[in-house]
Here is the input.
Amino acid sequence: MSRTVIRGGLVITASDEIHADVLIEGGRIAALAASGTPAAAAFTDGRVIDATGKYVIPGGVDAHTHMELPFGGTFASDTFETGTRAAAWGGTTTVVDFAVQSPGRSLREGLDAWHAKAEGNCAVDYGFHMIVSDVNPKTLKEMDLLVEEGITSFKQFMAYPGVFYSDDGQILRAMQRSAENGGLIMMHAENGIAIDVLVEQALARGETDPRHHGEVRKALLEAEATHRAIRLAQVAGAPLYVVHVSAAEAVAELTRARDEGLNVFGETCPQYLFLSTDNLAEPDFEGAKYVCSTPLRPREHQASLWRALRTDDLQVVSTDHCPFCFTGQKDLGRGDFSKIPNGMPGVENRMDLLHQAVVDGHLTRRRWIEIACATPARMFGLYPKKGTLAPGADADVVIYDPHAEQVISAKTHHMNVDYSAYEGRRVSGRVVTVLSRGEPVITEREYTGRAGHGAYTPRSTCQYLH
Here is the structure.
């Protein structure tokens, strides 16, 4: 049935809140009309979804996931099938994952490998960024071709020497190229060379527990790398998007750059807003569950992250979803924190945790939708197809019950991982029904989607550049 009417809900977008009925035809939003008006009454025929007492919001856009990522001798435990299904359960209808260039290989080879993993397996729509780990003249030419075909963002790493690391010269060359071709450089900003020295020294002192992962990856080394990335981008005349910002000092660097009028953007993740080094210090190796990079910070950093989200010095909340099971994967690092695979699960929890932030007074409802749906869609060239509810947009729609209470737990989540980073946390708000391009993926808390419904979505360039 290609026609659906959603009646009686509070429609929330980044710009508006209105009690409206939504008409969906052929997988797209056809019209909105204030509830109870003659225009809304004219929405007849088709399936009717009653959203009385609930929010009607755009599907979430998670612009930072790592399904099936190879890391530290193992692979992220969510496949594109399990990961996108979990995303749908959490009200996220588009993910942008990272294809990986292996050193010595072409970008195309890496991209083709990721297409092969995802094609026919996704429950919701997906796009790709490209991790550039080998900058050379051929790679730089390939970047131009990728932008033309809708891969418009490239990630580089100042961390992980010997794996993904790029030096300042390689970063500058890639930035210069993106300044010409319209691409956006995404940066993992941590001084990996210095961090490796601190790791070696900590292990030599016998400091092997997970909490030392946070202690060696110092906030100052995140801030230093953020500053360096900003200045290299300024020299290149290129825009910059800094991923998973966790430290107050790094926020300060972004804020200053934006005050200078630079095209610099920042993302944080729920783990930095809700978790801290207290979790890394949990006994009996439990802290390993919380090992990710950038690392969790002491709790006092959270205030500046929330403030930056309110003042738009940080624009996006993504998950950096990169799950590894506690048993069999995280425990590769027993006795040596540097061998714990870096990454945490979260694709299913982001929309709910950010709604809890609304309940707690950190964010307005519209800002919730802005940082979770609209801005990531604009940042990565998906708007207005994704990220809003407006005529012509894809009918990616979530019916959300703000009053339902739930307790987050590995027992009930749908991610393919044996623990929850938010185990036992009580939150207000829950997804009831999810449509992806007008098709019900979650129907009244039942999964009604299928692998292969999700379509690959090419992207235009960043919509924020001046």
In short: The radius of gyration is 21 Å. The longest helix spans residues 219-236.
